[in-house]
Design the sequence.
């Protein structure tokens, strides 16, 4: 099993592997949005173009401590990710589906 | 290990065990907010009192498809849970920390 996974990894480009490694080191660690963007090797300009806003809007968004879930989802999607909203209880975790779209 | 966990579970009340089981069946399944509240055996009235709003406000909130992250966090905390914001990428998952408070 481990060998097969290693083969899969080896077939990726060095840049992709480096990004994967950086992400794995942070896996399940907390990270602010701007660090996540940098880990994906994306600039504020690139993200701004994807979201049809200007760079200043991205800069402002990354400093916010509260925002609409839809705004956050669009930002994460522009980086190639998917937003998941999880409620954690002593008994376990539940994914909240109200905001799926 | 398995035996010790079973002992821990057995020490809980039957009501608590039933709730745990219901939650486990839904574990990592998607669930809307009102179902999660019902799984915790909480009424809209109870939650409204905890959040210092009226029952109609809870009803309205549970039908929304978008809201501020802080609003959702307060709702989940009122049920005894914690909100987690996760960005999922092909390479792995990252917890977003901008909104921790």
Sequence:
């Amino acid at each position: 099993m481990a060998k097969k996974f290693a083969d899969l990894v080896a077939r990726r480009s060095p840049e992709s592997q480096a990004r994967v490694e950086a992400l794995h080191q942070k896996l399940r660690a907390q990270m602010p949005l701007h660090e996540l963007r940098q880990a994906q090797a994306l600039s504020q300009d690139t993200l701004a173009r994807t979201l049809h806003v200007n760079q200043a809007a991205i800069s402002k968004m990354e400093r916010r401590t509260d925002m609409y879930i839809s705004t956050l989802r669009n930002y994460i999607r522009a980086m190639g990710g998917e937003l998941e909203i999880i409620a954690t209880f002593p008994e376990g975790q539940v994914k909240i589906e109200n905001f799926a779209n």
About this structure: The CA atoms of residues 3 and 9 of chain A lie 10 Å apart. The first helix of chain A runs from residue 2 to 10. Chain A touches chain B through 48 residues (CB under 8 Å).
